[in-house]
Amino acid sequence: MPEVAPTPQQTVHTFCRYCLASCGVDVTVEAGRVVKISADKENPHSWADFCAKGRTAGQLVDHPRRITRPLRRVGDTYVEATWDEAITDIAARMSAIISAGGPDAIASYTGNPAGFSSSNLLFMTGWLDAIGSHNRYYVGSVDQNNLHVVAEAMYGSQLFVPVSDVDNCDFFLLVGANPAVSAWNWVESVPGGWKRALARQRQGAKIVVVDPIRTESAEKADTHLPIRPGQDWALLLGMVKVIFDEGLEHRGDCTDLALGVSELRSLVTGADLDDLAARCDLPRADIETLARDFAAAPGAMVITRTGVSLHLAGTIGEWLGHVLNVVTGRMDRPGGRRFERGYVDAQKLAALAKSPDHRSRLQGRPTVAGHHGLDELPAEITTPGRGQIRAMVINAGNPVVSGPDGARLDAALAQLDLLVAIDLLQRESHRHAHWLLPAAHWLERDDLLALTSGLHDEPYIQYGRRAVDPPGDAREEWRFFLDLTLAMKRPFLGIRGVNGFVKATRHLARLTHRPSIAFGPHWIDRMLVAASRGISWRAIMDHPHGWVFGKREFGQLRKALRTDDKKIHVAPEEFVARTHELLAEPHPQAPAGLPFQLANSRRRHSMNSWLNDIPGLHPSGKDNHAVINSADAAALGIADGDRVRVFSPAGEVELAAQVSDRPRPGVVIVDHGWGSRVFDPRGGAAPISFGVNRNLLIDGSPVDPLSQTPALSSTYVGVQRVGP
Ligand SMILES: Nc1nc2c(c(=O)[nH]1)N[C@H]1C(S)=C(S)[C@@H](COP(=O)(O)OP(=O)(O)OC[C@H]3O[C@@H](n4cnc5c(=O)[nH]c(N)nc54)[C@H](O)[C@@H]3O)O[C@H]1N2
Ligand SMILES: Nc1nc2c(c(=O)[nH]1)N[C@H]1C(S)=C(S)[C@@H](COP(=O)(O)OP(=O)(O)OC[C@H]3O[C@@H](n4cnc5c(=O)[nH]c(N)nc54)[C@H](O)[C@@H]3O)O[C@H]1N2
Ligand code: SF4
Ligand SMILES: [Mo]
């Protein structure tokens, strides 16, 4: 028998771009296909969180339902088209819509994965600036908007993010975070952060977890405080009060670094500790002990995450977390929160690109971080008038499942004249799309995440190499946005002359047979590196496993502050005013018939709404449940495994109950991200879906007035037994 020559295998060192943990990975490629992904243990910075999602990334690349060519809707089915056909049609229809209704008739929604591409957001913004639309929506109002609002007010830039110095910390106060599962990342990245925190704990550090659920992180903590959902602000304000009342503050930082300490003092003087304790439903003595222990620890930090942000007082909770760090002297000190310069000054660049202020057409609300609140989108689509949204691009997002009141948004999307989705698969939010455009997966993309380099907890750089080519006609988003801009004959980035330049480089590339000459993201990567602090392109390429290019520095914070007076503003007027409002509100009380608050948790194998369908993930069952406290279940006659109906004024879902003592009484957990269908746009087979979409129960309004975030994690619901 003739011997078959084995296909050579090749290993590509790169990093996973599913979440900001950015784990270094080794991708084994054979005959142009991914055959294995493992942790790159030679990566000096970021492999320690490597998980099953990264390990199975090749299965999304090869997904049988992957969109690999532009698909155009014809009646109830989709037919394949070329990119030229797609762009010509979309450009013509958008131009007509702008002629009739103005540029704001075109809207965009950008989801979380767009943030892990170096080119997606940049080129999308280039297109939006070209057409001049203000109707921009993004995932921020269901994620981290509160952090941007706080960073702008306190540090002078919405991108100013202090990073955690985990390895020197003696006291971790983790509020609304479950790093054992989510990895230590939320607009900062501390690779292996949870394991490193546990290592500190073995050396004597204390970990306190504040969470209505006894989570995986709470299980390992020294103390778990099962707070009432949505009331972190009351706990944190109580701590600030104890610290000032008992003179535990860091005198130096309170006078030299912070501005507004006296306003803060008078705010807490007027607050009553028993009242605050009753609001967050924690014993007053626990708040006092926590404040004293926190202030006394040599190195300490508060971190606040999505458990704080997805509520109506999320901005105040976030702010008070930063306040605690500042007034106890944790900023820029070992064991606290540092400023990491990265290699590119993203704040400076962001300040140059400041987006114009805009008020929404119907509610007159301003933008947050350049975007309007997702809750406003349905009415902006369905309400007639100039500026009514008639066309929309959904870019790497699934807002019908990940955002509030999905049924209302879904109905609105159905009314658009043009819906374009650019994604890997057709999911719930893309159900009514007129065009489905095939995006490239990160394994098919080169990325240099220069603009988020200051979010790593040490000076770190890695060039994210592509491992394989995109299938069929799949393309990176930037190409679509640039081509669409040219086809619409609008100046890219809103700057005259750019289109001519782009065309000239493309022409030259054709003439010289050197495609890399054509303008694209690699131009920008090169420019950013050229303008960086002392990093050469060559040196980056010489470190395929990633490169820690310096030591963790302290003493950079003061210089980096973007406030005019180079001080941290600890008492911004609008935050103090909002706190007075909260203090004047009656204590939280469940409305009649809706006695529970709806919580959710993440799982190690899930990524928001979009990996649950991958085989091999969730070996113990692809489903979500209504997890109900044992005492509550007994009172309602609910046994483990019973079918229950969970309902609110916005909607209802039916699912199996799980009786548990993990949630505090009065809290029902239904994990988010489930119940999103994956369609088969070519074959027309039945959609794949697991679990139910619990965000159907969330009313989009009211929102936190400062961050425009709805109460995704504290909405009141009712629970009823349906049957065994
Ligand atoms: N109740 C509740 N709701 C929540 C949360 C919660 O904790 N509780 N968490 C919130 C948070 S933190 C977030 S970030 C949001 C997420 O909200 P979204 O970002 O709107 O939604 P995702 O579910 O992340 O969907 C991302 C989509 O991007 C696609 N995709 C993946 N990679 C790429 C790519 O490279 N290019 C393109 N074009 N598409 C890609 C996926 O297929 C998927 O369809 O959900 C929020 N919703
Ligand atoms: N495996 C996995 N990892 C992920 C993701 C994922 O989907 N899966 N998503 C990534 C993304 S986009 C993000 S933004 C990060 C998020 O990272 P985290 O914010 O750490 O996310 P969660 O694990 O949802 O933890 C939030 C915790 O807040 C608690 N909580 C809810 N309401 C309250 C409240 O009112 N007060 C307090 N104190 N706690 C509350 C919840 O019970 C939950 O345990 O994770 C990232 N990492
Ligand atoms: S999804 Fe998993 S492997 Fe990928 S970066 Fe996040 S933690 Fe790392
Ligand atoms: Mo997120």
UniProtKB/TrEMBL annotation:
Cofactor: Mo-bis(molybdopterin guanine dinucleotide)
Annotated 4Fe-4S Mo/W bis-MGD-type domain residues: 9-65
Domain of life where this protein originates: Bacteria
Record bears the keyword Oxidoreductase: yes
UniProt keyword list: Iron, Iron-sulfur, Metal-binding, Molybdenum, Oxidoreductase
The keyword Transit peptide is assigned to this record: no
SMART domains with a match to the protein in the record: Molybdop_Fe4S4
Stored Pfam families: Molybdop_Fe4S4, Molybdopterin, Molydop_binding
Family the UniProt entry places it in: Belongs to the prokaryotic molybdopterin-containing oxidoreductase family.
Name of this chain's protein: Formate dehydrogenase
Organism: Mycolicibacterium sphagni
